[in-house]
Design brief:
The chain is of the alpha/beta class. The chain folds into 2 domains: 12-178, 3-Layer(aba) Sandwich (Rossmann fold); 184-368, Up-down Bundle (Dehydroquinate synthase-like, alpha domain), CATH 1.20.1090.10. 50% of the residues lie in helices and 11% in strands. The chain contains 15 helices and 8 strands. The protein has helices at residues 23-27, 41-54, 70-80, 96-108, 112-119, 185-201, 210-232, 237-257, 261-273, 277-280, 285-292, 297-307, 311-324, 338-350, 361-368, and strands at 12-15, 32-36, 59-61, 89-94, 133-137, 149-154, 159-164, 172-175. A 6-stranded parallel beta sheet has the order 1-8-5-4-2-3, with helices on both faces. The chain has a two-stranded antiparallel sheet with strand order 6-7. Helix 3 (70-80) packs across helix 4 (96-108), helix 6 (185-201) packs parallel to helix 8 and helix 12 packs across helix 13 (311-324). It is globular, with a radius of gyration of 20 Å. The relative contact order is 0.11.
């Protein structure tokens, strides 16, 4: 059968222990905004380290929320605009929320109203700013360092938006596994499961291609193997390195496909029940896996590389994998009624991410019953 597909990712990636030392080289003398968290002494240390490596930043912005909201991003944009010396690049050190915030700052500058209007369909991309980003992830999971979109939450209206444009791929991604040392178990778990979801969702996806699928298979196998070990041995740098690389490959996979049904479902749980993103987008994976078996020869072939020839057994093993990590695979355990869950599935299938899913409503409702 003839195939037609494309794969693109323009991010320059530097991977390895100690690679944070490359920051001066990547900045190449440009003035910069240093964007990071404000809630842990480890990030104080990183601010000082980067300042020593690359010179003092033009401005430091640290009020980053776990799920960047309209309200919080307005504050971040004002802080960004407070510098007399206009930054030429944004250095984002942190998890997905920091890197997503960097993309919003790159698009908004000091005025979040630009991005808000764009997200709400009131303006087009020509109204947005464009600033290079250097991303240094401190978690292994979101893949935001190699994608061109950012998740933005309007918590008051209970809506999730995606800022998406090719201008907001980071210029450079520096992945230093040493930066992930000291991450708490709960965050290691949730971000690792987010990466697993990225990998699997890029396989059962209408936009899948051979390159994205190869990246996804590698990532899923590595996460399934290394994540339980890492949770038992959180200071093992070899395991941190494996998970960081797996997360990167999952990011490279879904950077071309986007996510699918599990992520579309997760937004309901996060907005209405406060479920942490990595848990919200992964607990449904066994049910979704069962629902896609037999739908696509290419999808089945890829999944068999991960779970073995018996995919129904593989779905049961994935269920056991999650429950063994303390993650329930039942929607009702997250405060959702059966009726609400059916409604959430119906809505999720209609959303942009849901439309990427290769399965069908009847099959997923059968597994969710």
């Amino acid at each position: 059968m003839s195939q037609s597909w494309k794969y693109t990712n323009p991010v320059n990636v530097t991977f390895g222990r100690g690679s944070i030392s490359k920051i001066r080289e990547k900045l190449a003398g440009r003035s910069y905004c240093l964007l990071t968290y404000n809630d842990h002494p480890a990030f104080d240390t990183l601010v000082e380290r980067v300042s020593e490596e690359a010179g003092r930043p033009a401005v430091i912005v640290r009020d980053v929320e776990p799920n960047p909201s309209f309200r919080g991003l307005r504050t971040a944009c004002r802080a960004f605009g407070a510098s007399e010396n206009k930054p030429e690049v944004i250095v984002a050190i942190g998890g997905g929320s920091v890197i997503d915030t960097a993309k919003v700052l790159a698009a908004a500058g000091d005025d979040f109203a630009r991005v808000e209007a764009f997200l709400q369909g009131k303006s087009d991309a020509r109204t947005l700013s464009r600033l290079p980003i250097i991303a240094l992830p401190t978690t292994s999971g979101t893949g935001s360092e190699v994608t061109c979109w950012a998740t933005v939450w309007d918590t008051e209206a209970k809506r999730k938006y995606s800022l998406a444009h090719e201008h907001y791929y980071p210029e450079h991604a520096i992945l230093d596994p040493e930066l992930t040392l000291g991450i708490p178990r709960s965050l290691t778990l949730s971000t690792g499961l987010d990466a697993l979801s990225h990998a699997l969702e890029s396989i059962w996806n209408v936009n899948a291609n051979p390159i994205s699928t190869n990246h996804a298979v590698f990532a899923a196998r590595e996460i399934l193997s290394s994540l339980p070990l890492l949770l038992e041995h959180p200071d093992d740098l070899d395991l941190r390195e494996r998970l960081a690389q797996a997360s990167l490959f999952a990011g490279l996979a879904f950077s071309n496909t986007k996510t699918a049904l599990a992520h579309s479902l997760s937004y309901y749980l996060t907005l209405h029940h406060g479920t942490v993103h990595g848990i919200a987008c992964s607990f449904s994976l066994p049910a979704i896996l069962r629902s896609v078996i037999g739908n696509s020869a290419a999808c089945d072939a890829a999944l068999k590389q991960i779970f073995g020839d018996d995919l129904n057994r593989g779905a049961s093993e994935l269920d056991a994998f999650l429950t063994g990590l303390g993650v329930s695979t039942r929607a009702t355990d997250y405060g959702v009624t059966p009726e609400n869950w059916v409604g959430a599935i119906n809505d999720a299938l209609l959303g942009e991410r849901g439309r990427n899913f290769i399965g069908n409503r009847e099959a997923i409702l059968k597994t969710a019953a």
